[in-house]
């Protein structure tokens, strides 16, 4: 699934951002669907959203559980593809589907590495409710 997500992200990036900078998120669902999204350019920074948001909303819309998340970014069509750890807000969005969701994380050597969300959030606030993320 990890390689399938990467290839989908690369293909979508080439299509959506043939030139210049760009970022793409891809999420996999329990049934095997691959959902893609971007962070749209906005004229007012207060309206900006993360790359994953569109795909997260799509998963909710089709009532599917997310199992994997991958975000990639590049400065230009000639730049290296970077793997991005979900920001804190997106980690909270993904937590809806539990701590087992596999998320791609940033590494110093920029390798494709997935970790369970619970490893990124070992002290998640839900523990006070007796939940184990």
UniProtKB/TrEMBL annotation:
InterPro entries: Cytidine_deaminase-like
CDD domains: cytidine_deaminase
MF (Gene Ontology): catalytic activity
The protein, known as: Cytidine deaminase
